[in-house]
Each structure stands twice: as C-alpha cells, then as structure tokens.
Predict the structure of Argininosuccinate synthase.
Amino acid sequence: MGRAEKVVLAYSGGVDTSVCIPYLKEEWGVKEVITLAADLGQGDELEPIKEKALTSGAAESLVADATERFVTDYAFPAIQANALYENRYPLSTALARPLIAKLLVEAAHKYGADAVAHGCTGKGNDQVRFDVSITALDPNLKVLAPAREWGLSREDTIAYGERFGIPSPVKKSSPYSIDRNLLGRSIEAGILEDPMAEPPEEIYLMTKAIADTPNDPEYVDIGFERGLPISLNGQALDPVALITQLNQVAGNHGVGRIDMIENRVVGIKSREIYEVPALLTLIHAHRDLESLTLTSDVSQYKRGIEDTYSQLIYQGLWYSPLKDALDAFIQQTQEQVSGSVRVKFFKGNATIVGRASSNSLYTPELATYTSEDQFDHKAAEGFIYIWGLPTRVWSAKTRG
C-alpha cells in the first residue's frame, strides 16, 4: 500500500514507534523512514534510542535538542497566559506536541520527505494535536498514523517487531502510560483507570510524598520581566535552568501533583495524574503579579481569554488564527507585568506570601485605614447614588 516515498517518523524508542518503521516499509510501501527523537528535557539517554531506530530499519536517525526552544517558545507564552486546562492542568504534555510537529515538518522539508508519521492511537489527544499542527504548518504533507490503523494488540505488535529484529521488552512492561519532559510527567492507565483508586506512591518521580517533605518551609522569590520568569532569589537564570531548579525545590516540598478527570478532545473522559512542580508554581505566581500590575478590567477580561487559550492548546490548535490573535492581546497585557513574587513552599503547598513591582497599581495612601488615608470618603455617596440608579428605577417599577 504505497502512501509515501520518504517519511519522517516521530520516534520515542518504544515498541509502537519502533514497529512503525518496518510496518511503514513492509505494509505501506514506504521506501525510506527517517526517525526524529526530540530531546525536551525528559532526562532519557537518547543515543541508545538513536541506535535502536537504525537497528529497526531507519535510513537515518535524528535527535533534536529542543529543550530551550520548548521552554522559551511554548512554556513561557503559556505562563503569560496563565493557561490551565479546565482550570487545573498546566498543559505540560500538550505544549510539547506543536513543537514536535514543527520539528517533524522542518525535517521533512530538509530531507525532502513527502510525509510525516507518528505512533499515536485513535483514542488519545496527541493524534489530534499532531495531525492538526502538521497540517497547519504544511497542508501538502501527508500525515501517517500506522498505530491508529493497524489494529494490532500489544502482543501482536511485539511479535510483528520481533520478525524484523526488534527485541521485545526485556522486563515486564509497566502498567502505566507515562510521558515526560522538562515541564512535568503525565501518568495514566493501570490501576489509575479506576477513578476511586488512590494513586500509588510508586507512580511519582518529581514530587515527594507529604510525609517525606521537609519540616521547615522554604521561601523563593521569583522574578518576572514582562510576564516572563527570569530569576530565583535574585539570581538571573536562563529558562531551562530556572525550570530545572524550581522543579527541584517545589518537588522536594511535594508541590505540583494533580489528580483529575479530564475531557479529552475525542469526547471521552480520562483519569490523568500530573506532576508539574515548577510550571504550576510559575503560573500561580505570575497570575498573582498580574493582580498587582494590571487594571481590574484587563485582569477580568483576560480570564476568559486564558480559558480559551488553554482549550486551544489542549485541542491541538496552537497554530491557528485565533491563537495568534490571542497571543497579540496577551503580549500587550504583559508590558507592565514585571516584579517579584515570594512563594512559601511547605507540605505540599506553594503559598504566595508577598509580591512587589515598580509598576504596582497598589497605592498605600488609598488602601490604608490609618491616619495616612488619602481616599475621599465623601465622594463615595455620589458614586453610590449614580451606580445604584438603574437598580432603584427597576425596583420602583417592579416592587412599588
């Protein structure tokens, strides 16, 4: 079944994406498969993954070091947007997909491929994110998804791979499906498919159990410039180092665990566990700094924008006209969002205990109840009369 001559395949080194290589060639008549593994700070050793792709039949095996790009171009804009899907999930996994799609398209252009491929199944969100993002970036590229069509069980997939020299997993496969990058981990499947089952401690890697966290609080001052995190405790850090250090601090205090039932793009509900210590902390700190530096009408209007923005990311619409338009609005709001937010980490909580900014709209002389008070109390009476006039007219007509 000839669908393409040359294909760039998103490659993780797992069973499914490894089997995709011979499957594309044998079943779909692809002449050449080039694999692309993206280093997004997941901590895996990618050299063995590169070798495995070649052993599995890839003509070329690429590794893209994209961690800094991931944080700067994808995570940071989401932080400026306070993007929390369903007001809880900071999109750590979803944010990686438009970047991987972009890397695939760039590789396809460089190597003259007429298609790209991924190993997603037909039930998840990632297939939507990859397919839509790739199409948005290059509508002429074919998008192949073998695992969505081959109808193979796990056992069948392993057996198929063994026919082409792909070794079966040596150890017993984990019952969990785990995705990791610098921003966090997502864990699903196994016992977690029962919404009433408490997640076992063994699934966590980035965050400590509350019982194992320090007995003393730790304070961190997070510096922001135009809505972007730039320092911890006064020390300027590059984006990757900042996320890395904050992951360690927050995770050490048990901060960043999320257990939620979320609504997938394909219409089903799924139980998801996330570990997102730094990302969650940064969004909460950033939102707090906005409360100090943005006017009330901008803050209130932006909340609706943030909800839409998070849905666009979750639904695979990073490269869309609406997302571009919202980016312009968000960037405009960030001009004054500079300053510092003090966070207290203690026993699973990241509590904001202070904030400061040279652009602060908080005016002590107006807010104070001391003798320094400069607010004109007499002006309130006239304001209330005008403000309440429509209500009084309505009341007179309906209750008089």
